[in-house]
Amino acid sequence: MKQSLEARFWSKVDKTPGFGPAGDCWIWTASLINSGYGRLGIGRHKKVLAHRLSYEMKNGPIPEGLLVLHSCDNRQCVNPSHLSLGTVSENTKDMLVKGRPWASSLKKERTHCKKGHEYTPENTYHTTSGRSCKACNSAYQKARYLKRTSPE
């Protein structure tokens, strides 16, 4: 039996308190695009941004030309109460008022890796190309080892 789109969507969301400025961000735990937004595949060839789908499930269709803005400034957040519609101009003004950096420096400002692990001193490697998550690196190395050592 196929799972409904809504059930599939919410199965990929972590509502554990503690993320975001007020601790009430709902974090997308599945696939992310390079800019840090969540993504979900619908059907065979269509992919949608998670925060946009969250907004639409609660509020209905998004009018053409409008963006879904995050009041929490957390790209992985899909909490509908943190999402609102706005124009590119409004989004840019919001970014400037809040002192958010331009896209090239966003990676430095992230507090969590793509999988949601916090960048703490204990969980962060510092390299010449930036930071990386020790928990994710450990999981990757373990999977790689298991793949190499498993009989085919």
From TrEMBL:
Q: Which Pfam families match?
A: HNH_3 (PF13392)
Q: Specify the superkingdom.
A: Bacteria
Instruction: Give all residue intervals belonging to the HNH nuclease domain.
Output: 49-92
Per the database entry, which stretches of residues form a coiled coil? none
Q: What name does this protein carry?
A: HNH endonuclease
Record's keyword terms, sorted: Endonuclease, Hydrolase, Nuclease
Q: Which GO terms describe its molecular function?
A: endonuclease activity
The taxonomy runs: Bacteria, Pseudomonadati, Bacteroidota, Cytophagia, Cytophagales
